[in-house]
Structure formats: C-alpha cells, structure tokens
Write a structure and sequence with these properties.
By secondary structure, the protein is of the alpha+beta class. The chain is 38% helix and 19% strand. It has 13 helices and 13 strands. The strands form 3 sheets. Strands 8, 9, 10, 11, 12 and 13 form a 6-stranded antiparallel sheet that branches. It has a 4-stranded antiparallel sheet with strand order 4-7-5-6. The chain has a 3-stranded parallel sheet with strand order 2-1-3, sandwiched between helices. A hairpin with a 6-residue loop joins strand 8 and strand 9.
C-alpha cells in the first residue's frame, strides 16, 4: 500500500506541545560517522534549547545506561549515524529500559540499514531500483576476484556504483567508469563493510526527500536538489560547506516533484518506518524517479538536506524534533507501535 503525498502542514497553526522533563540527545558513538553524528547532535540540541526544551547531550559509552536508569529522561533522540546507530541495536536497548525515543523501531531499522534488503522491499512496493548485486567479501575472494568482476561488468555494464551494503555518508562509495577502476572500488567498499553493493549507475539529478510523521499521515518535505562541485555527492561534498550547491525546493516539474514525494512516502511506509526518514533518489533524463537508499537517522548538520528542507517549508528544526519527541512520549504511554 502506498501513501498519498500530503501538503506540508502550516507550522504556525499547531505549535509543538510542551515537553515535561529533559530530552537526551545521543550523538557520537564509535562508527566512521562519529564526527557527523556529533555535529547533528549539537545542531538539534541548540535548536531545541532555543524553543525552551531542556536538553542533555550524551555520547555512547559505559556510563550511558546507568545514567539513563538513574535519571530517566522524558525522551531520547538518537542521532547516531553508521552501523552502531542505525542498525536498531541502540533502540533495542532503549526499549529494554522502557524509554521513549524518536525514530523507527529496531526491526524496521535493520531492514532499512541493509541496502540490498531495503531495495527488494521498496521494489515490491512499486519503486524503481537500479539493477545490482550484493557481494560478501568471502564470496568475492573464494570465487576469484577477476572472474566475479568480469561477470559484473558483462551483466550490469558501465558505469557502476560501488558502495558498502550497510553504512552512510557515502563512505567507501565510488563511481566506476572503466573496468580497470573496479578492483580499487571494491577494496574501498570492503574497507567499510563485509558486503559490497554493486549497482548500475543511473546518471541524472540527485534529490533527497525527507518524510515526517508527527501524528497524522506521513508527509514529505520539499525535495532538495543536490549538485556537488565534483559531480559525485561523496563524504567531502556532503559535509564541507560550499562543496555542493543545494536547490530547495529542487528545480523540478510539478509532476516529477510529486513523484519524488510519493517515492519517499512509499519507501517510508513499505519499510515500516516512523517519525522521520530521508530517501535518496535519482531522476534520470526521461524523468523517471529511481530509489537509491533510505536513512532512518538522517544527518542534521549545517550542510544536511533535512534541515534545509524544513527551513524551505517554513518549519523550525527544534519545533519539528520537539513534536516528534512529544509523540514518542505519548506512544510509550499507550504501548509500542
């Protein structure tokens, strides 16, 4: 079942309800994306404090659980990126402690974080996904790297996109234009995970669409058009100010913009996500929308697309997160969903 795109709510009509007690923002962790997580955490903490919310910023270490158990917060906002923050494990522990938290439940996180699995789910829901193959390192080595790479090029053609099957921020991802570049790309992907996802590269305009579900039907924020200076939206382009040109809303025909919103909503619904997600899409020369991946803990730094989209929609980031935190508190009181 797919969701129908809804208009962005009027942020002035229903201000975020007050939160009783403090909110703990979890940021940092030990993944390769620790720095991005810390920046997201600071941004959100500052935005929530600006609207009067009591916020405590915490890293993930051995002191965290005793502190949460001794002084339970009203709500936890996990902003941990990478495997340790997006595979559902931290959320499993928060549920063990009966603590309300913002974001998707553990099982949905595990599915969304595994890019090949998420692709298969959204493909069944009707979205276009690039043809690709997931290759564990063991299979790649045991069958012979050269033979496997030759088969990849014959089946998928060139250019190719190679990236870790799990992970974010484009770490270990690269575009292969020539078969001679494929070995190095595979090594880069395996440096960040045990399985590489090799896909047919879809040229076109990259857009990011965030979905927010703060109590009513999920709705999509304006699409953000992404034009990196180097042509590839890699780690540097994502987190270095000035390295990427963003257009908000993206410069799209109305029907294409609606298709992008529908794709993000379909992915959010099909994967069983809640509260907030961000889908990364490509629009090819024919105007076809292709789903690339989804993020259950999207970056909220100064150069991240979700805050840019929220601002373009007239929404305050602190108000958005506070509303999601209020919903998490209510949800915990009525039982998990």
């Amino acid at each position: 079942m797919t969701a129908t795109p809804d208009a962005v709510p009027d942020p002035t009509s229903t201000p975020a309800p007050a939160l009783a007690g403090r909110v703990v923002v979890l940021a940092g962790g030990l993944s390769h994306e620790r720095d991005v997580s810390l920046r997201s955490g600071r941004r959100v903490a500052e935005a929530m404090r600006a609207i009067g919310v009591e916020v405590e910023e915490r890293d993930v270490d051995a002191s965290l659980l005793p502190a949460l158990a001794e002084h339970p917060p009203a709500c936890v906002v996990p902003l941990l990126h990478g495997e340790s923050g997006e595979d559902g494990a931290i959320r499993e522990v928060l549920e063990l402690l009966d603590l309300p938290y913002v974001g998707s439940r553990p099982a949905a996180c595990r599915v969304a974080f595994d890019k090949p699995v998420a692709k298969s789910v959204v493909a069944r829901a009707g979205l276009n996904v690039p043809p690709g193959v997931a290759l564990p390192h063991e299979t790649f080595r045991e069958l012979g790297a050269t033979a496997v790479m030759d088969a990849l090029v014959r089946r998928l053609g060139l250019p190719l996109m190679v990236k870790p099957a799990k992970g974010g921020s484009a770490l270990g991802a690269s575009v292969v234009h020539d078969a001679a570049e494929l070995p190095g790309a595979m090594v880069s992907a395996f440096a960040y995970g045990t399985t590489a996802l090799v896909e047919r590269f879809i040229p076109g305009m990259e857009v990011a669409v965030a979905v927010v579900d703060d109590g009513g039907a999920p709705w999509a924020l304006p699409a953000v058009g992404i034009e990196p200076d180097g042509g590839v939206y890699d780690y540097t382009a994502r987190y270095t100010a000035g390295s990427t040109k963003f257009s908000v809303p993206a410069k799209l025909d109305d029907d294409v913009a609606a298709a992008c919103a529908q794709a993000a909503l379909t992915a959010h619904t099909a994967l069983g996500l809640r509260d907030v997600s961000r889908s990364d899409l490509i629009i090819d020369a024919d105007g076809t929308v292709w789903f690339l991946e989804v993020n259950v803990a999207p970056g909220l730094t100064e150069t991240s697309t979700v805050p840019l989209a929220a601002q373009a929609a007239g929404l305050d980031l602190g108000e958005v997160v506070a509303r999601l935190a209020r919903r998490a508190v209510d949800r915990c009181q009525t039982g998990p969903s």
